[in-house]
Amino acid sequence: MKIRLASTIALTLAISACSDNNESTIGIYKHNVALTGTEIISEVKKDGDTYIFVGDAIKNKNVIALSKTPDGLSYNNIPLKVSEDGNTLYFGKITGTRVDANYLSERITTIENNKKICAELQAEVDKNEKTMPKEQWNDYNKLLKTKTPDGCHIIGAGMRW
């Protein structure tokens, strides 16, 4: 019985010694670009023994491998830290707030819907651009601006003088 208890304690200590303190950094974070105010969603994930920072999780761009240091994770000596409550990410100029996978999924859905709306509006403008008289076109253009989602640039949609 004592041997079994000692084995259990030893195994527990061995497992906890092997645990990775960097696991708390894994997650999805949103932050704004200081210059433009654009929201970016980043992700810290683990692939095997490697921690990866995905700068733009929506476009799956700016992917970097993080280095393990005695103090945590870093990239080019820039530490990646998470607040004690685990809700805030600090990485260079980035200060992000933890969000869940549903938030990322909703943002992706919104972006896809906005692309569809933008394509439909572009087709509508292409059709109406040559046929509408100037006064009607300018009224149409004002209405168009209220229906255009963020990030949508419609070619040919401008006031006529």
From TrEMBL:
It comes from the Bacteria. This is Lipoprotein.
